[in-house]
Amino acid sequence: MRRTGLDVGPLAADIASFRLHLAAEGKSARTIGSYTAAVRWFAAWLLPQEGRASWDQVIPQDVQRWMVHLLSRYSTAYASIQFRALRQFFKWLAAEEEIPDPMARLRAPKVTIREVPVFTSVELSDLERACRGGTFAQRRDAAVIAVFTATGIRLSEMAGIRYHPDDPARHDLDLDRREIRIAGKGGTARTVRIGHQSARALDRYLRVRARHPQAWRDRLWLGVNGRRPLTPGGIYQLIARRGRQAGVPVHPHRFRHHFSHTWLDRGGPEADLMQLNGWTSPQMLTRYGASARAARARRSYDRIMTDS
């Protein structure tokens, strides 16, 4: 849903200043875009609904009515994201202009966690089978699915993996060590590990990639028929397409839930999972793998409460 062209009249100047503030703080282009779009959307609704001519006229009830409007049309998670963007804006504006913050005492909407089912072994086998073959697309898609399964990285992180073996500064793969360097949120880099099978899938892809007309580009994932590197949207589409072929409901983020569940289910330390997933808040541990938490608890019971 595009909101960048919304008319916000006299409220636009402060949104532009907020954008500059976010950029000066080193926020990513994606964060800047989503935050300012949220503020602009609120402003476009606010003007005709409440007739506010300046930000200092906004009252807490305006924000509350906006949240009710969002919650009637979108998920609680989406409304919460919009709330947090607005809160950052009004916090900045209150400090800059020394005006009251209308959101100072407001709480974000409570997010209802939607349980994302983890993959069964049959589903993963079906996805692998859908990519079986020696064509460029088959080897590429098999490698993408293998890396998603082994790491649970974000869609944007997958699209951002670089391949330039002649220049270590622009090269993120180390198949000998089975490691991939990832550019995470906010430009924070981390290194993730992959298994032998994933490394082999990548190696098979790299051999056909070497004959691609766009092989000189420093993005790992290239398009079919000589096309340029895949965008996050292109990777999303290939995952959805292979899912339809395999009869498996799948989207890239499901791999992240599956990876987190598998790690915790096998006794992996939570702190290590936070590092591998690029999380800074322990709250994320309660969100991922939630759909299989009850099964993990039952298995823990059998391990801990074994009859003597």
Q: What does this molecule look like?
A:
By secondary structure, the protein is mainly alpha-helical. The protein has 2 domains: 9-97, Orthogonal Bundle (DNA polymerase, domain 1), CATH 1.10.150; 121-294, Intergrase catalytic core (hpI Integrase, Chain A, Orthogonal Bundle). Helix content is 54%, strand content 4%. It contains 13 helices and 3 strands. It has helices at residues 12-24, 29-50, 60-71, 76-97, 121-130, 136-151, 155-159, 196-209, 232-246, 252-265, 270-277, 284-287, 293-304, and strands spanning 173-174, 179-183, 189-193. A 3-stranded antiparallel sheet has the order 1-2-3. A hairpin with a 4-residue loop joins strand 1 (173-174) and strand 2 (179-183). Helix 3 packs antiparallel against helix 4 (76-97), helix 5 packs across helix 9 and helix 6 packs antiparallel against helix 8. The radius of gyration is 23 Å and the shape is globular. It starts with 11 loop residues before the first helix and ends with a helix. The mean pLDDT is 90.
**Cross-sheet strand order for the largest sheet:** 1-2-3
Strand content: under 5%
Q: Would you give the CATH topology of the largest domain?
A: hpI Integrase, Chain A
Cα Rg: 23 Å
Domain count: the total is 2
Query: Count the helices. How many?
Result: 13
Helicity range: 40-55%
Q: Keywords, please?
A:
308 residues, mainly alpha, hpI Integrase, Chain A, 2 domains, 54% helix, 4% strand
Structure at a glance:
The chain is built from 13 helices and 3 strands. It is mostly helical and 308 residues long.
List the helices and strands and how they pair.
Elements: H1 12-24, H2 29-50, H3 60-71, H4 76-97, H5 121-130, H6 136-151, H7 155-159, E1 173-174, E2 179-183, E3 189-193, H8 196-209, H9 232-246, H10 252-265, H11 270-277, H12 284-287, H13 293-304
